[in-house]
Write the structure tokens for this entry.
Amino acid sequence: MLDPLTVVSISELNRLARQSLEREFPLLWVAGEISNLTRAASGHVYFSLKDEAAQARCVMFRSRAQSIPWRLENGQQVEARALVSLYEPRGDFQLNIEALRRAGQGRLFEAFARLKARLEAEGLFATERKRALPRYPRRIGIISSPQAAALRDVLATLKRRTPHLTAILYPTLVQGDSAGEDIARAIEMANQRDECDLLLIVRGGGSIEDLWAFNEEVVVRAIVASVLPIISGVGHETDTTISDYVADLRAATPTAAAEIATQGWYEGGGKIADLGTMLGRAMQYRVARQQQGLDHLSLRLIHPATRLARARDRLALLGSQLDVSLSHGLRHHRDRLNRAALDLVRAVPRTEKRSGRIGLLAQRLRAAIHGQQQQRINALDNSAAALAHLNPEATLARGFSIVRDATGRLVTSAANLQAGQTVSLYLAHGEAEASILTSNADHRPIAT
């Protein structure tokens, strides 16, 4: 308390007055009409609040003014949360504005808070009460105004993400005195008709008055009583209504509500595409691996015609080698015989007495040579006949055939055959397919 005799400066007096005002008056809500509105280059907003009998200067600093969701204009009726203060340099009484709302919103906020607290006490906001959303809905119901931009956004999102789904509109008012009753009737109608798997309640953003229908108890009770799961997509991300609390899921925007409703189908399409890609790659890998195995097997597989050609070539080679060997042997024996004849001629005594014996010996020698030559010729004929007998083509020409199973393996025993099995027969002229009727593994000689 100042001494009445103390002399103070104006600045000190203004400071003491400001401190006294800010100490005596807490933050409070003040109602009035905006006038003398000025926006400074600094971003601060200056105006007056007035009623029929008085006015007060107000300042709203830039950091606070940026949070106002609408444009301030002269003549607007507002409610301001203000700190009573004094501008010391000029000694002006002023209100430092912390927040602004349109006139009447205070009552709406109070009604909102009371209803929210009462419904929450009833357990209507509890998570365990809420219904699970269908992951793959086939029909989606939309509760909205036919003229609403939010409806167009939702339909565009559904068409883009899930064009195969059916959307059913339950038209209703979304703003106005009778909007709450209208919305509740639309919810009840959707449940009675039971023609969709999921409901979307959507509306664009707005003030608390614009969205008030979604705070009415009749709408909240209709959402709670709904058998169909409900997604609430009302307003912008910063807008919250009581319908959002009781709905089975709250979406930030109408578009987000449509995206959540179709999330299962949308993600499922991507998963199916990924699985298709993986399956295609697995099939390509398997086919490539099988082809590689087939390539390796084909290198080991020799056609019977090739085998016969190789055997024919080997037989020809052996025949040539036999001809060469026989020719060489005959020539060798002929040379030996000639040398022996020459030696014999040289050794023949020059006597007439033994000419008769010499003639006899010569005759015997010729006979022996002839016999030996005949013996060699017979052996050569026998060898040629044996080679001809071993020729596979000669064997096939006598009525025999080469039998192979379906894998190309040579069949040499009836024990390897089963009734109904298909085999390939290679004959002297051509090939044939045969089906086994019966098989007997007991060996029986073939009649010749």
